[in-house]
Amino acid sequence: MRDIAATQHGPLAGFTVGVTAARRADELGALLQRRGAAVLHAPALRIVPLADDSELLSATKELIDAAPDVVIATTAIGFRGWIEAADGWGLGDALLDRLGQVALLARGPKVKGAIRAAGLTEEWSPGSESMAEVLDRLLDEGVEGRRIAIQLHGDPLPGFVEALRAAGAEVVGVPVYRWMPPEDIAPLDRLIDAVLGRSVDALTFTSAPAAASLLARAATRDVHPELTAALGHDVLAVCVGPVTALPLQDQGIETLQPERFRLGPMVQILCQELPSRAAVLPVAGHRLQIRGQAVVVDGALCPVPPAGMSLLRTLARRPGWVVSRGDLLKALPGTGRDEHAVETAMARLRTALGSPRLIQTVVKRGYRLALDPAADEKYGGDG
Question: Of 110, 124, 126, 191, which is most buried, counting CB atoms within 10 Å of its CB?
């Protein structure tokens, strides 16, 4: 059946997506919002400014003074930033001269463009844009006794440097764009709380350091088990690529990533996965779809308050069955409530849905979703 809500409001209408990126967060947020999502952004890390990075300055001087055999450029923005930083230190010409004398490998077409824009020419670039193919080529050629410099973007690439060193190479890391924890940790804490409270439907990661930083912060707050449980079951973890996913997978968290490691394909996965996970129920002659933080009734998007969404999700777990006020009370966020809070939240939920008949009151017992008769048999309603 055609998804009317997706046509009218966007495939991510009603869903809230968390963004952990520090770089290109605005671009990712805009892609998500254009498809109807609400976006909760909290950078999980910050980037050390290149001009202030003493480690990058030291590595640059070392390479100028002692030429490597091979230089591997991994990202276009990192390579350009390195050249610009060297210019600022008065080392730009010396660095370009040195890079022009060595075998320069480019991970992909964007990096090739950055290399050529700097007046240099790459010796080789893998068709797959994969660092695994770069590693295979180097190992096939033999690296024993060779000096290899790699332009790092964030953390070192897992296993890459170790494999080269194990094969006898001397590896020099060029730490372009080192990651640090965010200066203001409050937004990240709010995002973690939103994951724990299931008020976000998916969490996106564009770098392994961001994923590791979020997990580390959860451990510091002693909520790491709860966070991994939420990401393992209720909140979808989506990564831009397999390297980004490694810190999460190491904790047993299943992730999704696109075949092409780009923001657009990552957003497309969300557009496919989140709506496919949304329950669709025939209720009181209407088609009701529970979409994260909102409900679609006959194609109309109905925002619902958080307490109402908690009640509706509880009812939808056993559609057609009566759920007691006591069980519904347990589902409400917060503590210290009484059953009057259930009645208040239920009244607001019915108002938000636009039809009080969608949820039936069963006297002295509780509430139930008013499934259509044929569906009631399928879902085992008890009347």
Answer: 191
- For residues 140 and 293, the model is more confident at 140
H or E segment at 55?
helix 54-65
Could you give the 3-state DSSP secondary structure of residue 255?
coil
- What CATH fold (topology level) applies to the domain 280-379? Arc Repressor Mutant, subunit A (1.10.10)
Q: What is the CATH number of domain 4-45+182-276?
A: 3.40.50.10090
In angstroms, what is the C-alpha Rg of the chain? 26
Side chain identity, residue 271: C
Crossing angle of helices 208-220 and 186-196, in 10° steps, is: 80
| Amino acid, single-letter form, for residue 63 | L
Which burial class, exposed, middle or buried, applies to 14 when counting CB atoms under 10 A from its CB (0-12, 13-18, 19+)? Answer: buried
- CATH 3.40.50.10090 domain extents, the chain: 4-45+182-276, 50-178
pLDDT, position 337:
66
CA dist 272 and 379 (Å) reads 26
SS3 320: coil
Topology given in CATH for the domain delimited by 50-178: Rossmann fold (3.40.50)
